[in-house]
Amino acid sequence: MQSEPVIQIRNLTKIYRDFWGRKKVRALNSLSLDVNKGEVFGLLGPNGSGKTTLFELITGSNQPTAGEVMCMGKNIHDVRYRERDRLAIHYHQSYQVRHFAKRKPAFMMQPAGSDYPMVHLFDEPQFNTQDGYIGFMLEFFQKLRSEGRLVFLCVHPNERFHLEILQEICEQFIFVRHGQLSHAPDFETLVTEEPVREYLGELLH
What we know:
Blueprint: E1 7-17, E2 24-35, E3 40-44, H1 51-59, E4 66-71, E5 74-75, E6 88-92, E7 96-97, E8 119-123, H2 133-146, E9 150-154, H3 160-169, E10 172-177, E11 180-184, H4 187-190, H5 194-200
Parallel strand pairs: 3-9, 3-10, 6-8, 8-9
Antiparallel strand pairs: 1-2, 1-4, 4-5, 6-7, 10-11
């Protein structure tokens, strides 16, 4: 039995400032979330809502203004840079792995203690509708899930089949809007929220 949550997010905040350090853009505002086991989470939200920033903070490729991300009991921002993707890995669109800026000498940081990532974050992957590609990807997500790994699938749906993919594969859902997070245990609960219905619009009909 797993003794600790896969992910613990505590009061996570990210504020971007302009060149002079005056103008502030609050990308994420004091988010908290615990995930105690490997599941497939669907992540949705308007452009600019903070989805990619959240993924970057979970993998340690972006530095939080406040708060922390614990992955398998380790603060991801205290793990050695070259070993962070052994805990959490971010695939952006065409499955390219995101990289990060180094801010602290590696000898001052702790080892990951893992050889293969426990958290896999897919950021708006391009679902090709030809040649069985969608089925291949769904099987891959299920394989990760069966190994007890946590999968976040971020989709910006503009086709009905995008929602069908989310409904088929995702067990829980997160909606991000204006830097705030709301959590739903299933798709039916998710779409009872008016901001979600407004966001998805005609795709629900």
